[in-house]
UniProtKB/TrEMBL annotation:
Pfam families: SLT_2. SUPFAM superfamilies: Lysozyme-like. Residues 49-341 form the Transglycosylase SLT domain. It comes from Pantoea coffeiphila. This is Lytic murein transglycosylase. CDD domains: Slt35-like. The keyword Transport does not apply. GO terms for molecular function: peptidoglycan lytic transglycosylase activity. Keywords: Signal. Residues 1-24 form the signal peptide.
Amino acid sequence: MKLPLLTTLLTLLSISSSMSLSYAAIPPGALSSSGSASLSQQGRDPAQFPGYVEQLKATARLQGFNQATIDTAFTGVHFVDRAIQSDRSQLEHKVTLNDYLSRVLTLGKIEKGRDRLTAYRAQLDSVAAASGVSPSYIVALWAMESQFGTIQGKEDVISALATLAFEGRREAFFTKELMAALKIIQQQGMTADELKGSWAGAMGQSQFMPSSFLNYGKDGDGDGKIDIWNNVDDVFASIANYLQKEGWKAGQGWGTEVTLPQGFDTELSGLKNAQAKTPLQWQQLGVTVKAASQGNAPGRAWIITPEDGDGRSFMVYDNFRTLMHWNRSYYFAISIGMMADAIAQ
């Protein structure tokens, strides 16, 4: 996810272990699935979480964080049982594309998107001019990630990340994100109480994971800080900065829905470079566009047919692949493209 975000498709729908050993000689991230038994298989006892936190502190010291930052970050750290439950529940539910779109692409959200596009037109146009990212895509991501900033998550990010590292299935990943969160505290002069986010550690109105904040967060109003929790100028600039750095093609759209000919070779579907063709080449193979896409004509395109996608297929462009960097879900990227198209009308 961006890593914005571990807010994957299934996270958005709320629909995608803890070990009885001493941690004295086991640094966080030292054990992985390559061992004889994974941490989640062995099972960790939450009573050992305080001992694990001490190991996280030791890791932070080894990475050069000063004691003041460590004290600020870990004061009040606690086990977040909901993070474990939510992380595990992601693997237990599947929805079809139509069901997903009906939930996340509501008329009410589209109308709010149009209202926000109008209300913040000056700021959005300024960001678009600097980045090449259309205002409608910035607003669409803002809408999907945090309901225009109204749902950012209230979890203590340090506690959530420490808990998920402790759980063990993705220990190295969450330990890395925790160290990134410490760097934010140190660089931005923040407290742990100010570092709020989702159960997975995604933060602010853009739902950036800490590493994404460090890589893509941008000061949009020149006040010397990056505040993706409260400052929409910083939120818009950061979203656009992410897309620009990940290869956004200015003026292009994301794609369009298509009908595939009978007997279409499914091996042609996918997002690999070798599977790209021009839109004209796809049409010569019998692919029929249902509606013209917004934006300039792309030089190359891909055909995708999402799993559990109710038989729907799409011709997608480079910007769709960039949206997939943000969140590796066909459903999510399609919803962003459709939302951007809808609010731009």
